[in-house]
């Protein structure tokens, strides 16, 4: 007889989505030893391996994928139950899982999120940074309720709504030879020293992929955690940077930097909301989507 509890199912979902028992345990607020024991007992109960373990982390076996689908369905049902029962206690409760690319997470979400949470004290929002390509698959699988990603990415059968307009630009010190250009191709930028975001960021991974397509390496001298820090080093002539225009324009108000549009087609990065079915979401999630669209 299977005796999985909600903690087991939540842990398994986190482990698969993180691709790591260590990181999955951290997301589930469990010690690594406890998480490993729970996974082992689940496998023993089922009599089948749930995870394939390797140097790069873990991935679900066929049995694991089946369990994951049911775990997501059960956990989503519990969230809906909690929300509906909260009405009888005079409050509202719920959790929203959002995946966002670097630009949306840093530049556009904070204000809209603050406004929503102020009016919905019983609601929690869990946000994770992912590349736009990863977001599509995870939202389609039910790993998140909502995604915010580049409008250039194919979202398949997901519902989409416009969110914000943005594009990639070159950021250079004002006296740099490229600072006066009307626009510039990314391949030309690759011939210069660059300052970038941390290699784990969605933007960094996206730009590295574009450089690979051009057959050129990115000459990254420094990688930092935030847009403002990157722009300060550009001002100090450490190197050039490629950033979203929204972040670069904000930094340019207080720094001696110039902003030059990239001419590449992929540089247009209008942001889009994506989800599986707006009408099928609980009321508080529909309210959150409305807040994002109206902000």
Outline the structure in words.
By secondary structure, the protein is α/β, with parallel strands linked by helices. It is 45% helix and 21% strand. The protein contains eleven helices and twelve strands. The strands form four sheets. A five-stranded mixed sheet has the order 4-3-5-12-6, with helices on both faces. A three-stranded antiparallel sheet has the order 10-7-11, covered by helices on one side. Helix 1 (6-18) crosses helix 2 (21-27). The model has no long low-confidence stretch (mean pLDDT 89).
Low-confidence stretches: none
List how many beta strands DSSP finds: 12
SSE string, helices as H and strands as E: HHHEEHEHEHEEEHEHEHEHEEH
Tally of alpha and pi helices: 11
Span between termini? 50 Å
| Computed structural class | alpha/beta
Q: What portion of residues is helical?
A: 40-55%
What is the CA-atom radius of gyration, in angstroms?
A: 22 Å
Shape: globular
Rounded mean pLDDT is 89
User: What does the main sheet amount to?
Assistant: 5 strands, mixed
Give the strand line-up of the largest sheet.
Answer: 4-3-5-12-6
Strand content: 15-25%
Layout of SSEs?
Layout: H1 6-18, H2 21-27, H3 32-46, E1 51-54, E2 57-60, H4 62-86, E3 94-100, H5 102-119, E4 123-129, H6 132-141, E5 146-150, E6 159-164, E7 168-173, H7 186-189, E8 194-197, H8 202-214, E9 220-224, H9 227-235, E10 241-244, H10 245-252, E11 257-261, E12 271-275, H11 283-294
